[in-house]
Design brief:
Elements (H helix, E strand, L loop, with lengths): L1 H23 L2 H54 L5 H83 L3 H13 L5 E5 L2 E2 L8 H9 L4 E2 L6 E3 L1 H9 L6
Helix pairs in contact: 1-3, 2-3
The structure holds zinc ion.
């Protein structure tokens, strides 16, 4: 039955393609992670450099503010000698207190900026070896992946072209169903009967059904997992035989 043969062939191609993906392992993921980490450090360095450029200006601006509040305090103090009643005197005291508090906060702000300046000036120093290390690591991983991919590139190209040919000449509905099962069942769509059970989920297949499957005249799905079940001989023959996609 042509449909059945197509499905097993498709499964064979997909298993071979999956093997190639497995060979690449988590190298593509590792490369992505390394790139993200490197990017993160570079952003931290840039932010630190930006801060260092602006920090002195910030401190100067705060000092101007402190000077202004000192001048105001002096003015309030002078005014206290000219007040006419306690209420005005108290009001000026309150203003002076508030100026003192403000100046104190500004001093703290300067200290914080100075501390951050020190931290920021270390960022570059700490980041440099890290960046160098990550860049080397990234280069190595990329070279590894390239080695693996280069060796299997032709193989992969042929498999993909065979797959395309197979799909083009096959009923679209059947392919859609194949893809659905493939996505739901870890890439294993077509399985063989193994010791009287489904080779996918290992649930027992009734004898009568097994006999029908062995005839190979139509497509049978496992009642439990939905995979397509074929006889062991048929499965092995196509899996191990010459690839016959034309
Ligand atoms: Zn099953």
């Amino acid at each position: 039955m042509e449909n059945l043969k197509t499905l097993v062939l498709l499964q064979r191609l997909d298993l071979q393609l999956d093997d190639l993906t497995i060979m690449r392992g988590d190298l593509p993921d590792q490369i992505e992670d390394l790139e993200a980490e490197l990017e993160g450090i570079k952003v931290t360095v840039l932010n630190a450099e930006k801060f260092l450029k602006e920090a002195d200006g910030q401190i100067d601006a705060i000092r101007v503010e402190i000077e202004a509040s000192k001048e105001k305090t002096a003015k309030y103090k002078a005014q206290q000698f000219e007040v006419r009643n306690n209420r005005e005197y108290d009001a000026l005291t309150k203003e002076m207190d508030s100026m003192a508090k403000h100046a104190e906060e500004m001093d703290k702000k300067i200290e914080a900026i100075k501390a951050q300046k020190e931290e920021s000036s270390k960022v570059n120093l700490l980041a440099d070896p890290k960046i160098k290390h990550l860049e080397q690591e990234l280069k190595d991983r990329k070279a590894q992946l390239e080695d693996i991919t280069r060796d299997t590139l032709d193989e992969e190209r042929i498999l993909l072209s065979d797959r395309k040919k197979l799909i083009e000449k096959t009923d679209k509905k059947m392919i859609d169903q194949y893809e659905r099962i493939r996505a739901a069942r870890d890439g294993k769509v077509v399985v063989k009967i193994q010791r009287g059970a489904c080779g996918g989920c290992f649930k027992v297949i009734p004898l009568q059904r097994q006999a029908e499957i062995k005839k190979g005249t139509r497509v049978f799905h496992c009642e439990h997992c939905g995979r397509i079940i074929v006889s062991e001989i048929y499965f092995d023959e196509i899996m191990n035989g010459a690839l016959a996609v034309k």
